[in-house]
Amino acid sequence: MQRVLPCGESVPALGQGTWNMGDDPRLRGQELAALRRGIELGLTLVDTAEMYGDGRSELLVGEAIAGLRDQVFLVSKVYPHNASRRAMPQSCDASLKRLGVDVIDLYLLHWPGSVPLAETVEAFEALRRAGKIRHWGVSNFDARAMHKLWKTAGGAAAQANQVLYNLGERGIEWDLLPAQRERGVPVMAYSPFDQGRLLASRPLKTFAGNHGMTPGQAATAWLLAQDSVIAIPKAGSPQRVEENAAARARPLTQPELEELDRLFAPPSGASPLAML
Ligand code: NAP
User: Fold this and answer.
1) How far is the CA of 250 from the centre of ligand 1 (A)?
2) CB crowding 40-54: b at 16 or more within 10 Å, else e
3) What is the value of pTM for the model shown?
4) What confidence tens digit (pLDDT) does each residue in 25-61 have?
5) Among all residues, which ones are annotated catalytic?
6) Cβ 112 under 6 angstroms from ligand 1
7) Which residue ranges form the domains of the chain, and what is each CATH number?
């Protein structure tokens, strides 16, 4: 199952998140095994950020993808305060070094900050010309911020916007998701399990049990049923990666999607973009 970026390149609809990975040395072996199992299963879009564990997540990802670079679509993020003409090249070089790669496939502005957007776009484009990133995009941009970006010179080159989106947080369906669909810019859904909390919710557990799947599979399958959405769950063990990946083989039916709409209502009006 693939999603097409505005540049025409295809990426997997189900990838892997890595926030909080690499922080605990006791979990390192299991986390490396989880990421490698995910890649084996086709979850080859791997999401990290310079922020995560002050670079420890990027270091772990670098180790996990060593020897597998060609199979992976690597996403990392720059802090807003580093998203300037001056600071971004240094941030990017530091990320490349930690990741042990020559190029990042998709480099995102982690959230809107005080550096003017036009300058950030210029800095991204300079990195692209230098061959250090292949594409760039944004994260935590609401509909208004996306429209502003699209009006900025060069802003139409953004390949994705990564935002909080899961069954319990459906606000973007009101305005942001339709606007991005119209432009062909995928939403990358972060915290698809609401950091695990969603999987403990009674309605989801009951739904999953009644339909012969796990809560993780139900939450994943629901996101995979949404056009133009890429999901990046984080799972810390190969077993959990396998469990979540199996959702691809169990698409939700129309009646199941309608049942989930009754349990987790879609938005009935505009709301501020939810963020973690
Ligand atoms: P998440 O993916 O919603 O949830 C991760 C939690 O779910 C972990 O505690 C994990 O436990 C648990 N889990 C995973 N699979 C499970 C399963 N099958 N059964 C039970 N529990 C399961 O949370 P997230 O890490 O916040 O979001 C995913 C990724 O999105 C991040 O890792 C990061 O890459 C990205 N992100 C981006 C932003 C942004 O601002 N752009 C913000 C937040 C997140 P174990 O780890 O113990 O397996």
Assistant:
1) 21
2) ebebbbbbbbbbbbe
3) 0.99
4) 999 999 999 999 999 999 999 999 999 999 999 999 9
5) 52
6) no
7) 9-263 (3.20.20.100)
What's the 72 CA to ligand 1 centre distance in angstroms? 19
Between the alpha carbon of residue 177 and those of residues 90, 161, 217, the distances in Å are: 33, 10, 22
Q: Which atom of ligand 1 lies nearest, measured to the CA of 108?
A: 41
From 275, 165, 269, select the one nearest 226 (Cα to Cα): 165
Closest CA to 17 of 144, 190, 245: 190
DSSP state at residue 177 = H
The pair of three-digit structure tokens given for residue 16, joined into one six-digit string: 């892997």
What are the structure tokens assigned to 275, written together?
A: 């963020």
Q: What is the pLDDT of residues 50-98, one digit of tens each?
A: 999 999 999 999 999 999 999 999 999 999 999 999 999 999 999 999 9
